[in-house]
Amino acid sequence: MIDAILQALPGAFAPANLLAVILGTMAGIIVGALPGLSVMTGMAVLIPLTFGMDPLFALGMMAGMYNGGSYGAAIPAILMRVPGTAASVATVMDGHAMTRQGKAGYAIQVAVVSGVIGSVFSALSLITLAPTLVKISLMFGPSEFFWLAILGLATVASLLGEDLLKGLIAACMGLILGTVGMDMATGVERYTFDRLELSDGLDLVVLLTALFAIPPVIQMIENARQEGMPAELLNLRRQKSPLRDWKRFLPIWLRSSVIGIIIGILPGAGGSMSSYLAYNDAKQQSKDPDSYGKGNPEGVAASECGNGADNAASLIPALSLGIPGSGVAAVILGGLLVHGLRPGPQLFDEHADIVYGFMLQMLLSGLLVGLLGGLTATKIFGQALRLPEVLLAPLILLFVTIGVYSVNNSIFDLQVMVVVGLIACVVERLGYPSAPIILGMILGPIAEVQLSLALTISGGEPLALASSPVSMVLIALILLILVVPLLKRRKASAGPN
């Protein structure tokens, strides 16, 4: 592993790739700071723009966007009481209360430092744990990989949505989209409707853009807000650094980092769960739990550190097993595939310089958040909050259109983007999560190919799929993930006796 890291250092710290990380981090902070947008939206816009670029340059921008957007969402949460993402909801509780007390500058500094610490611990866990998980994955055969793909779909469907049934339906939508094109086993075209453009299946970049970029743009158009954030709230004053109170925050940073890393590794759990759990842990361990929600900076520290610690950790199962730990990791997984990088053991064998370079870029971007996201820079980036949505929406739509068209120079791709984007709006408003759809499209073909291989090896014997101990463990986990939410709902509907 050390040799691979040393081999990746020159590429990761090449001037062009360093610039990519810086640009991605700045863009991520701005995207995260804009209410209504999310890191997934930024990624969906970014990925088509990086098509054809050097993989490390593209991945550097993604790493910066991921960590920068994670922190940027804390800016409107603290200043406006508007969480930039679901993960920053816990930050609102104490962050905005500090703003009302005239401590907005201190709250933002606590958010920056805590996010950086969480991101650094997370990146280190990615570098050390992902190769170990790859070695374990070498024990897997076709049947194990089939159940692993089903496990990924089950976890994402159950954890990324409030309703298990809707999550499963969304995953099935993705499975259907993944069947479009030529069957890898038989060579028969499916659902192409005699369109040559569909013979290779739906383009992943187009679907990523349609699912995660179009719905928020349409929402902005509907709102048609002509006023941005009031200027007086951007009057930030520099206050003391939270590093001076490191003895107070250190236990919170350590516990929140561990919580964020564990949640990140669990497929589908996502940053919102880690920030909530870290916040609740800090409150329970506090000597003054009643002060939480009333402007206690420890609440901001726990939430942002847990959120930052989730970022790189969610890429551990994504890079090693092809199962992302969060919705953003799912989009990055799609970005890897767009650049011809298939997650799994072969990624570490064939592209060690790229994958370890990407890990180092995640570490670097986490540190850059501290430099670019400090109070002075936040004053600059915070001005983006004053941009009216009636101007922001067409700008995003312009970049999306250029990016999607440039992939294949195809009007058909734009038509697919519009149709799928409108369907995504309806699906989102009905409460169906979008991440399981894209995961179904990514993991569906993998599960199909592995199932075909397993049945071919076993001579068509279905019971062979559950013959190994690993397969039986994976099946048990799938059943556990699907049954537990149903039991909880049944218990909740039954009520107290």
From TrEMBL:
Span of domain DUF112: 18-439
Keyword Metal-binding: no
Superkingdom in the source lineage: Bacteria
Keyword Membrane assigned: yes
Signal sequence interval, chain numbering: none
Membrane-spanning ranges: 12-34, 40-59, 71-93, 105-133, 145-161, 167-189, 201-221, 252-279, 321-342, 354-375, 387-405, 463-487
Keywords associated with the record: Membrane, Plasmid, Transmembrane, Transmembrane helix
A Pfam entry, by short name: TctA
PANTHER family xrefs: TRICARBOXYLIC TRANSPORT PROTEIN (PTHR35342:SF5)
Name under which the protein is recorded: Tripartite tricarboxylate transporter permease
